[in-house]
Design brief:
Layout (H helix, E strand, L loop, with lengths): L1 H15 L2 E2 L3 H6 L4 H21 L13 E3 L6 H4 L3 E7 L4 H17 L4 E7 L9 H11 L5 E3 L4 H5 L4 E2 L1 E5 L5 E6 L4 H16 L30 E2 L19 E4 L10 E9 L4 E3 L4 E7 L3 E7 L5 E7 L17 E4 L3 E7 L7 E7 L5 E7 L1
Parallel strand pairs: 3-4, 4-5
Antiparallel strand pairs: 1-6, 2-5, 3-7, 7-8, 9-19, 10-11, 11-12, 11-13, 12-19, 13-18, 14-17, 14-19, 15-16, 15-18
Helix pairs in contact: 1-3
């Protein structure tokens, strides 16, 4: 009962700081309203809180479902006994996951010699995240040197009954899951659990918690949650919400869209000739654009270049972003999509207010997946 009370009080924070996986069938079934999404989040938080009270008896599931391992030979439960293990479910285009990476890297540096083993389980959300070359490139980019299990068939994800990115599971030296945390935040509590489990293992006090030697810039920097008023928004029709044009999105067929002159907060629109697929919208002809009315310090967009580099230009309220440009474009808003990944396009420095974002693609072929904010 206590767990249920805590869940009710905190479900909004959990919901905002995680990405939840839904299979294609559920995406079609579950409508579009905020009320239903909040109800799902509340129910999930209650279930998670109840499970957290009882999960001390749950053992580390089998890790043999990985399609491959990076930074390490394959690891088994038997090999990990006697170690304290932190399992991090992540995927490289997830903004919530990226903002957790500085803490994981710092814990690895601080506690590896004391017996902590961090295992990143890379479970994809989008199809391009199953490409081993993309995953290896992401590990190099983000400086990840601890073992990573490539879980492209979601076998480890299923073995844990996991539903969230990021999700952190803390396993003691006997192989029992003693604590878990879903989403960003609560890093001090997570570090206390690392210390507690290492103290049990080593029968000795561990280095004091914090401050950590964090290195976070660009998309890894902590979100400005106090001003963030825009939710993650998918462009593919399976999870698309708040599309501004009457008649909605035409699915899996080319359509010329004409963006409206006015957008309500958190509405978005395509402009130009696009084909909207389940995961993403693909631009058929050059000079198509996407517009979004948002309220947040940071704006990111998950993009793929398709068959080749795609040039773009970003505008804020019809003007070049200037000092408010993100790391993936310049002050004039120019940039290029060259990889399948998340692009940080806006980081504002002044007062945060409702703004209209526009990205015009100067070449055809780009695929746009999802907006996220920070």
């Amino acid at each position: 009962m206590a767990g249920m009370v805590v869940a009710i009080l905190t479900f909004g924070r959990v919901f905002a700081a995680t990405k939840r996986s839904l299979d294609a069938g559920l995406r079609r079934e579950w409508g579009r309203g905020w009320a239903r999404r909040a109800a799902v989040a509340l129910l999930a938080a209650v279930v998670l809180a109840t499970a957290a009270e009882a999960n001390g008896q749950q053992m580390l599931p089998d890790l043999s479902g990985a399609t491959s391992w990076l930074n390490s030979p394959p690891l088994t439960r038997e090999q990990l006994k006697g170690k304290v293990v932190l399992v991090d479910f992540w995927t490289y285009s997830c903004i919530n996951c990226l903002r957790s990476l500085p803490y994981l890297r710092a814990w690895d540096a601080k506690y590896r010699a004391s017996g902590l083993v961090i295992i990143g389980v890379h479970t994809p959300e989008f199809e391009f995240e199953t490409d081993p070359a993309n995953i290896e490139k992401a590990l190099r980019k983000f400086g990840i040197t601890y073992p990573v299990a490539v879980d492209s068939k979601r076998r480890i994800w299923s073995a844990f009954h996991n539903e969230y990115w990021p999700a952190h599971y803390f396993i003691d030296a006997h192989g029992k899951i003693r604590y878990h945390h879903f989403g960003e935040g609560e890093y001090e509590e997570s570090e206390r659990w690392i210390q507690k489990l290492l103290k049990e293992r080593n029968n000795a006090e561990q280095p004091a918690a914090g401050p950590l030697a964090l290195s976070a810039s660009g998309a890894e920097a902590a979100a400005d949650t106090g001003t963030m008023g825009s939710p993650e928004t998918y462009i593919g029709y399976l999870r698309a919400e708040r599309f501004a044009l009457p008649g909605g999105l035409l699915t899996d067929r080319a359509q010329v869209y004409h963006a409206p002159t006015f957008l309500e907060l958190n509405q978005w629109s395509l402009n130009g000739e696009w084909i909207d697929h389940g995961e993403a919208a693909a631009l058929k002809t050059a000079h198509g654009s996407i517009l979004f009315r948002f309220h947040a310090r940071d704006l990111h967009l998950v993009l793929s270049p398709g068959s080749g580099p795609v040039r773009f230009r970003v505008r804020l309220d019809g003007q070049a972003p200037g000092a408010d440009h993100g790391v993936d474009c310049d002050e004039q808003g120019f940039g290029s999509v060259t990889e399948d990944r998340l692009y940080q396009l806006i980081r504002q420095h002044g007062k945060i207010q409702d703004r209209t974002f526009e990205i015009e693609f100067l070449d055809a072929g780009v695929q746009a997946f999802a907006f996220t904010f920070g």
